[in-house]
Amino acid sequence: MSRWHIAQLNVGTLLYPLEDPRIADFVAGLDKINALADASPGFVWRLQSASGNATDIKTSDDPNFIVNMSVWASAEALLDFVYKSSHRLAMAKRREWFIRPSNAYMVLWWIAAGRLPTVAEGLARLTHLEAHGASPYAFTFKDKFPPPGEVGAPVNLRPDPYCVGWQ
Questions:
Q1: What is the dihedral of CA 48, 53, 59, 61, to 10 degrees?
Q2: β-strands 106-112, 4-13 pairing
Q3: What is the pLDDT of residue 165?
Q4: Cα(93)–Cα(143) distance, rounded to whole angstroms?
Q5: The CATH number of 4-162 is which of 3.40.50.261, 3.60.15.10, 3.40.50.1370, 3.30.70.100?
Q6: pTM above the 0.90 mark?
Q7: Could you say which DSSP state residue 146 is in?
């Protein structure tokens, strides 16, 4: 078993409040997507409140700004969930629900197995990625750095062929 897991945070600003019927499909799909994640190979943990998801965890004065955070056994397992499972169908509709991001909106980083990240930690790493680019501290699927203590160049997991929704 690896001593390291991959943590991920992604953020988005909804086009409309959660109660708005124009994003009812997004809200209605949360339980199904979360259950898919929970059952996916390599899944370790996800951020959730008593509601079972993270949409009501507020980290900003903007009520439409939401966060999603999870931990996976590997970046490859996370990539398979995000881009190769039925989660990709939700990704294809994200422009109907979210403002197109102009800054970094997703970040990966290594954490010791058994430790859970905090939202503040994830937001700090996202800010670092935006300001400094990919590094061992904060990276993306396109520049996956090796775990701490391992030597190697960043690896591009090539998510582009699977990425849908913002094109």
A1: -150
A2: antiparallel
A3: 58
A4: 25
A5: 3.30.70.100
A6: yes
A7: P
